[in-house]
Amino acid sequence: MFSAKIRELTLRRASKEDCRAIRYLMEEHWAVHTRMPLEDIRARIDTDLAFLAEDYVTLRGFIMVESQPPQNGLMITVAVHDNSKISTFLALALPPIEAELHAQGIKYLSQIGETEWLNRELLKCGFRLQEEIVTYRRKAQALPPVTPHPRLTIRQVHIADLPALVNLDELVFGSTWHKPKSAFREAIQRAPIFIVGHIDNTLIAYIWCDQRGDHGHHLTRIGTHPDYQGQGIGAQLLRYALDNAQKMAIKTVSLNTQESNLRSRELYRRFGFEEIHQNVGVYRKQLLR
């Protein structure tokens, strides 16, 4: 078991037995950044990189990072006690996490979100602002026409598509945005909309939406194989997904995309998405050269 000390603080791996104390830390103290609910943290705490810092009095900090092979590690949760220094906790917690990611061949550790207190400290720890994410939202409305691709077949996703989806994801998206196989497996089982596009029996595109409240969807992912981009396939899948959402009485659909992705932004505007001006920063530290 890994452990380390800075003065009176001891760092160790977290486990399910610590979840009650972690819940109290996250609910009662202000310095909390998380990308998932406590129930999901509990389910993943033994498999993700999860560490806590404690002294003889109480739990002082908790951090959990998801390894996203082949290149990225993503900060899921960081929580620090009100009476503890954030910089001290990060100085204790980041080195073993970075060492484990390095040993896995992971090149980058990333944090996504406008959590000012965390980002300010990460910049002191070697992180850099890589890019910004733009958020769009669309209310239910008439859909623009698209020209069907003559060879494209669209269908509901199957679990047998999992390997092809993971491979396609790595081709389409940069390392910061790769989704692990576990995320695809869960989405195939739970996402209200997850469809794929085939040409000549080869999976070349997909789109997946998650539920957001009773009447909202979030377009989590849309991707087309590089060899087939620019042929209207993404637009065809987007229209298919939005049409399905409206048939399900979904009132709003949101999405995020990189500020630099001008082609995608133009597509979304054509489909009635409006930018809501809540940009999110992507912070990244290089672990391997």
CATH architecture level-2 label of the largest domain: 3-Layer(aba) Sandwich
The shape is: elongated
Radius of gyration: 21 Å
- Stated plainly, the CATH topology of the largest domain is called Aminopeptidase
Q: Average pLDDT, to the nearest integer? A: 93
How large a portion of the residues is in β-strands, by DSSP E? 35-45%
Structural class label: alpha+beta
Q: Please tell me the total number of domains.
A: 2
Query: For the report, how would you describe the main beta sheet?
Result: 15 strands, mixed
- Uncertain regions spanning at least 5 consecutive residues: none
Q: How many beta strands in the DSSP annotation?
A: 15
Could you give the distance between the termini?
Answer: 28 Å
What is the H/E order?
A: EEHEHEEEHEHEEHHEEEHEHEE
CATH class of the largest domain: Alpha Beta
Query: Residue share in helices?
Result: 25-40%
Number of H/I helices: 8
Give a description of the structure.
- The protein is of the alpha+beta class and 289 residues long.
- The chain has two domains: 3-126, Aminopeptidase (3-Layer(aba) Sandwich), CATH 3.40.630; 135-279, Aminopeptidase (3-Layer(aba) Sandwich).
- The protein is built from eight helices and 15 strands.
- It has helices spanning 19-28, 38-44, 86-103, 116-124, 162-172, 181-190, 233-247, 262-270, and strands at 3-6, 9-13, 31-34, 49-54, 59-68, 72-80, 108-112, 128-139, 152-156, 193-199, 202-211, 216-224, 252-258, 274-275, 280-286.
- It has a 15-stranded mixed beta sheet that branches.
- Helix 5 crosses helix 6 (181-190).
- The longest helix has 18 residues, at 86-103.
- The relative contact order is 0.15.
- The mean pLDDT is 93.
